[in-house]
Specification:
The chain has about 90 residues and is α+β, with helices and mostly antiparallel strands. It has two helices and five strands; from the N terminus they run ββββαβα. The relative contact order is 0.15.
Length: about 90
Amino acid sequence: MKSFYYNDAGQFIQTISHDGSSTVFDYNELGERTATISVAAGQTLDFNPLSFTLANVVLLDKYVISLTTESLAQHSRNQFFPPRISTNIAL
């Protein structure tokens, strides 16, 4: 049996399994899922799933954190292919 938790915006933020393991989801300001944080059974949850920053969870250095494909793709796209600016010049 699993328990499912949502925030006030209706975003799926956490599952807790019968063995005590947990998964917490991070979202960006656009509401896109950016990361999954895995908390092992028996491991303490040292942050509030309703109000945390991913950077602070990374600093704890105790959880497995996976970035989502969408967040990686967006980061790569912005890093290697910045928005193009086109200019029309009349001669």
